[in-house]
Design a protein that fits this description.
The protein is mostly beta strands and 289 residues long. Helix content is 9%, strand content 38%. The strands form four sheets. It has a six-stranded mixed beta sheet with strand order 1-2-11-10-9-6, with no helix packed on it. Strands 3, 4, 5, 12 and 13 form a five-stranded antiparallel beta sheet that branches. Strand 17 and strand 18 form a beta hairpin. The protein is globular and about 55 Å long. The N terminus is likely disordered.
């Protein structure tokens, strides 16, 4: 989005994979240059006809590899998620959900080894038995591979991880994004969701609906580079507490709504701004009261 061996110790499943790789022959990056960008995508054994039309696509090279493995049903659970450059610093890849269905536990990815023109990508989590997939391939733009997550097999089949090596990013998208401070978030209250999304450059971020069971809309959560912006609809707006038993709302209509509350968190920093943040989603004060 080979050779396989599986070692089980207690409830721990580990799959080390030497993947089938399609690699471009490029010059090695010069010393001091930015590293190539590594992307991962989660593929699930689910019927694509039943997926939400807003779900990411499965590229043809991935589908061809899956069909060779007699995997006839597959859909993308994520888009291409960029991994952080730093060794052993994990990136949150997937929250385990496909639409409104919770399929697995959270999945993260990191780069434990990068040397001599090769790169090792580790994708781990899944649960309930912790499982990790290790993929090794050339550290060149255009290199790509898929690997089965045998430790997370379901009755529908195996989930897969796709890895793609891209050219170095010109600069981190996070460095290009305005800082999310308590003061800057307060200034976003009563602005439309579209204005907030444009200000913090969240247009291409992963997003999902925030609702209270059973299907009462409260807002939308955007995530990018370990930053999470939860935007809550202001009282009186068109979609405020709008009920839909199928959890199908119009994202463009949401963008036209004014925002009455924002919950932001990133690497231990938390802000609850505005009255529209539901009490059950607020972070308890440090006193615990």
């Amino acid at each position: 989005m080979r050779r396989h061996f599986l070692t089980a110790i207690a409830v721990v499943s580990t799959l080390a994979v030497v993947p089938c790789v399609v690699e471009a022959q490029k010059e090695a990056p010069k010393k001091g240059a930015l590293p190539n960008q590594v992307y991962v995508k989660i593929i699930l054994p689910a019927d694509p006809a039943a997926r939400d039309k807003s779900q990411p696509v499965v590229e043809s090279w991935i589908s061809e590899e899956l069909k060779k493995r007699v995997q006839t049903k597959f859909t993308a659970a994520t888009g291409w998620v960029p991994l952080v450059f730093k060794k052993f610093e994990a990136t949150e890849v997937w929250d385990g959900k496909l639409g409104d269905k919770h399929c697995f536990c959270d999945v993260s990815g990191d780069i434990p080894e990068r040397a001599d023109g090769r790169i090792t990508v580790l994708v781990h989590g899944w649960g309930p038995a912790y499982t990790k997939v290790t993929i090794s391939l050339k550290d060149e733009p255009g290199s790509r591979a898929i690997a089965a997550v045998k430790g997370a097999e379901t009755e529908d089949g195996l989930p897969y991880v796709a890895v793609l090596i891209g050219p170095p990013a010109e600069k981190s998208a996070r460095l290009d994004r305005p800082e999310a401070s308590e003061e800057s978030l307060k200034k976003c209250l009563n602005k439309t969701a579209k204005e907030v999304v444009e200000h913090f450059k969240l247009k291409d971020a992963e997003w999902h609906w925030i609702d209270e069971p059973p299907g009462i809309l409260r807002g939308v959560s955007y995530s990018v580079n370990k930053q999470y912006f939860n935007l809550y609809i202001a009282d009186g707006e068109k979609l405020f507490r709008r009920f839909n038993e199928k959890r199908k709302w119009n994202h463009d209509e949401f963008l036209a709504c004014k925002i009455g509350g924002i919950n932001f968190h990133s690497r231990g920093v938390y802000f609850d701004i505005g009255p529209a943040v539901p009490f059950q989603f607020r972070r308890p004060p440090k006193s615990g009261k």
